[in-house]
Design a protein that fits this description.
Length: 191
């Protein structure tokens, strides 16, 4: 295994890449599932409690079977309803949680596409509860550096134009200035 693949191999240490995001997701999922389990437990306890409280002192086998069948049906229906509500809650949470991830990823992709086409995009702005703020800060630093390079390039281009106007009688120098000017122009995005 080469060192490039070894750097990306999963281990216990690098499972938690974005700790706040993964911690929040895990805690909410556990909370929803624990709430559902607690609700099912309460329903079972209440149903069995009502079953024993309302049971006659002497029970025939047929009566006992009917009581157990009714309690079983009630437990199954209510348990399925609770689990269904937990799944719905998990789905809604998942959509809203993933929106806080997908939004920044979409913005990063759009910025990188613009940068790939030679444009220097405006800084990335994320919503207050979005994740990947550190990545946005790093991308904004890159954008800032590119803007500085673009500014220096414009200044150099202006200086070259001035220089070429002041020394038109020297063909070699004029040709070199023109070549540097063309190289700077090739770095800029054509407007």
């Amino acid at each position: 295994m080469d060192s490039g693949k070894a750097a990306y191999k999963r281990s216990v240490q690098n499972i938690l890449i974005n700790r706040p995001m993964q911690r929040e997701f895990t805690l909410v999922m556990l909370g929803i599932m624990m709430t559902a389990a607690f609700a099912v437990g309460i329903v079972i306890n209440l149903t069995l409690g009502n079953l024993t409280d309302n049971a006659p002192t002497t029970i025939s086998r047929t009566t006992l079977e009917r009581i157990i069948f009714d309690a079983n049906a009630q437990l199954v229906v209510i348990s399925i309803l609770i689990i269904f509500l937990a799944v719905i809650a998990t789905g809604f949470f998942g959509v809203f949680f993933l929106h806080r991830i997908a939004g920044p990823v979409y913005r990063f992709r759009q910025v990188l596409k613009r940068m790939g086409s030679g444009e220097i995009p405006p800084e990335v702005r994320l919503r207050r509860k979005d994740f990947f703020k550190e990545t946005a800060d790093e991308l904004n630093r890159v954008i800032h550096v590119l803007k500085e390079y673009e500014s220096v390039s414009h200044k150099m281009d202006g200086l070259l134009i001035q220089l070429s106007k002041s020394v038109p009688s020297q063909p070699e120098l004029s040709a070199t200035i023109k070549e540097v000017h063309n190289q700077l122009a090739s770095l800029k995005k054509s407007d």
